[in-house]
Amino acid sequence: MSIVRRENDPRGTLLTDVVVPAGGIPAGSAVAIAGNEYALCGAFLTDYADSFFGFVESERSPGKIAFVITRRGTIVTPRVEGSLPLIPNEEVYLSLTPGLVTQTLNLQPGMNVIRVGVAKTSTTMVFITDARQTIGG
Is 66 exposed, middle or buried (0-12, 13-18, 19+ CB in 10 A)? Predict the structure, then answer.
């Protein structure tokens, strides 16, 4: 995997040999790496929860490379389940819907509880990747 850092931009990673899959990826989507493509990432193991990588900075077309925000402490504007506003100072988790985040945990067997940040405003969060727990089946 070829990793390239943008000059003067320590917020994330540009993988030159990982591409956006058919259908593209919207800005702010939570993604994982699946082979040589990005995949929308959700809380279930079948949705690449174990391979969560970061958030796509801007919408990308199929076959293109994407800049992914991967650095802890970076401000991210994620896609939120139900397009709801984030509640500042509350934790943010990967959603059951791949690519999205949530502040409401709907615990189900086989899901990973992956805290991805803390809301800063109604639309942004501070990216944190230090808490993960699998719910037994």
Answer: buried
The values of phi and psi at residue 59, to 5°, are -55, 135
Q: Whole-angstrom Cα distance, residue 87 to residue 132?
A: 21
What does the pLDDT look like over 17-67, one tens digit per residue? 577 888 888 999 999 888 888 889 888 878 888 888 889 888 888 888 788
Q: How many CA atoms within 13 Å lie on the side-chain side of 105?
A: 17
Q: Which two tokens stand for residue 20?
A: 């956006």
- What digits encode the pLDDT tens for the residues 83-102? 999 999 999 999 989 999 99
Residues 69, 57: contact at Cβ < 8 Å? yes
Task: State both tokens at 28.
Answer: 């702010």
